[in-house]
Each structure stands twice: as structure tokens, then as C-alpha cells.
Design a protein that fits this description.
By secondary structure, the protein is mainly alpha-helical. The chain is built from seven helices and three strands; from the N terminus they run αβββαααααα. It has a three-stranded antiparallel sheet with strand order 1-2-3. Helix 4 (76-89) runs antiparallel to helix 5.
Amino acid sequence: MRAAEVGLAQVHHNGDVFELDGQHTKNGMPRAVPIHPRVAHIVRNPALWPVRPTKWTVSKTFKAGARAAGYGHARLHDLRHSTASEMINAGVDLYTVGGVLGHKSAISTKRYSHLATKTLKNAVSLVGKKHRTTGKKKAA
């Protein structure tokens, strides 16, 4: 999610999905964002959620945490890039990645598809390989 969306999202489906109406998304379209299982416990805990931060308090808090963890160069928005890249390198199609990121167009999503060298190497290694086919049928 974008920093500005975090405090505006409603939690649904037993804490498994954030839902945003169209007036709170960048592109004006409503969307649902699955909550990663490793952080779902936060939104299920009434002491931790709901929060009503602003875009700036979310970014500042993330930056402080990143510095404390030794990643002072990291930005919250970098998580969107790395999430998209990880999904694409795992074989998730651009349409699905765009849906998770809330993009209207695959052109926007392609910016996030920084393919790993290994993925590119594997793609090139397929060129010229013989693929198994079923036997030819005899003409009647």
C-alpha cells in the first residue's frame, strides 16, 4: 500500500484484507489489498489497530525503523518496488502484480518489474531448447 493509504484502509475478512474505497486511492478506483500473514496479527490486535496516521507520520516512522535496522537509505516506497519484483521473479503475472499494487495499467506495473539477473538468465537459456511434444498423428 502507499503511505497515504495505510491509515485510510478498512480491515475486512477476519483481518486478511485491507479495503479502500475509490476516494482514498491514487487512481480513484476501489481496491482490496491482501494482508501478509506475517503482519496480519497487527491488524487483529485492538491495541495496535486501527491507527490513523498521516502519510508523513507513516513515512517518518518507517524511516526511523529503517535507520535503527541499519537500512538508513531505505524508503517506504521501496517496499512496493521490492514486493513487485519478488512477485514477478516468483512467476506472478503483471496483471496480478498490478492488481496488488493498485495500478490501472500494466504500463505502470512494468516500472516495478525489475527482473533479477537469474530470471533473465533462465529465460535466455530456454532459447533453442527442444521441447517435448506429443507424437504426430497419422493422416486418415
